[in-house]
């Protein structure tokens, strides 16, 4: 992959009822090239819209890929990867870091009624996770707007060391710092 190819990584952090979303543009050669922030509701259903808004606010037509940390940020605020892909017109890769049986049982335990049905329907509509070997281990990837082989290549290109792709690794650090600042300022 060419060193100047850019990916937007998105991760979140929360301490209150609002989660801080950080978007970080990272080039394939590991250069950090931009930041944007948004919020979504902890336990809500607005994370997909918040990421669409963050992407629009960033106004970076040079971003080729979007990485998101996980599928259900902010306590089961389940992302709709297909809708995200359609809105931002970029391949979307949801990356998690541990094997798991999935979130359906946890959603059933945490919610009931319409809230449960909505989250389960969104969650079940997402593509399956695939294990992708990286430099120091493996990650689990769901992707939309890109074929499986290309998605694996992109994940590896943005994971030159460690087990976390740089865009989500740096976004996680930014989200924690911004959330801490926001929390202390309130």
Question: Can you give keywords for this protein?
Answer:
alpha/beta, 29% strand, seven-stranded mixed β-sheet, single chain, 186 residues, archaeoglobus fulgidus dsm 4304 fold
Can you put this structure into words, describing what you see?
It is built from seven helices and seven strands. The protein has helices at 47-58, 73-76, 81-88, 104-110, 113-124, 148-157, 166-185; strands spanning 6-14, 18-27, 32-41, 63-69, 92-96, 130-134, 137-144. It has a single domain, classed as archaeoglobus fulgidus dsm 4304 fold (2-Layer Sandwich). The model has no long low-confidence stretch (mean pLDDT 97). The protein has a seven-stranded mixed β-sheet, with helices on both faces. The protein is of the alpha/beta class and 186 residues long. The protein is globular.
Task: Detail the topology: elements first, then pairings.
Layout: E1 6-14, E2 18-27, E3 32-41, H1 47-58, E4 63-69, H2 73-76, H3 81-88, E5 92-96, H4 104-110, H5 113-124, E6 130-134, E7 137-144, H6 148-157, H7 166-185
Parallel strand pairs: 1-4, 4-5
Antiparallel strand pairs: 1-2, 2-3, 5-7, 6-7
Helix pairs in contact: 1-3, 4-5
Structural class assignment: alpha/beta
Per DSSP E runs of 2 or more residues, the count of β-strands stands at 7
* Oligomeric state of this protein: single chain
User: Would you tell me which CATH topology applies?
Assistant: archaeoglobus fulgidus dsm 4304 fold
Distance between the termini: 43 Å
Can you tell me the residue ranges where pLDDT is under 50 for at least 5 consecutive residues? none
Strand content: 25-35%
The total domain count is 1
Secondary structure: helix percent: 25-40%
What topology, given as strand order, has the largest sheet?
Answer: 3-2-1-4-5-7-6
The CATH homologous superfamily is termed archaeoglobus fulgidus dsm 4304 superfamily
CATH class: Alpha Beta
User: How many helices does DSSP assign?
Assistant: 7
CATH architecture: 2-Layer Sandwich
Main β-sheet description: 7 strands, mixed
Q: Please tell me the overall pLDDT.
A: 97
Dominant shape: globular
- Rg from C-alpha positions? 16 Å
């Amino acid at each position: 992959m060419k060193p100047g190819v850019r990916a937007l990584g998105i991760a979140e952090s929360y301490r209150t009822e609002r989660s801080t979303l950080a978007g970080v543009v990272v080039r394939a050669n590991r250069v950090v090239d931009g930041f944007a922030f948004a919020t979504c509701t902890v336990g809500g259903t607005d994370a997909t819209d918040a990421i669409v808004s963050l992407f629009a606010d960033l106004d970076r037509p040079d971003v080729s890929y979007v990485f998101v940390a996980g599928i259900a940020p902010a306590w089961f605020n389940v992302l709709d990867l297909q809708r995200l892909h359609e809105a931002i017109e970029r391949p979307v890769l949801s990356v998690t870091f541990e094997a798991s049986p999935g979130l359906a049982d946890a959603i059933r335990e945490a919610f009931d009624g319409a809230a449960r049905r909505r989250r389960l329907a969104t969650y079940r509509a997402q593509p399956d996770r695939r294990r992708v070997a990286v430099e120091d281990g493996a990650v689990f990837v769901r992707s939309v707007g890109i074929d499986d082989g290309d998605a694996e290549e992109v994940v590896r290109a943005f994971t030159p060391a460690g087990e976390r792709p740089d865009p989500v690794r740096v976004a996680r650090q930014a989200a924690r710092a911004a959330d801490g600042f926001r929390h202390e300022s309130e």
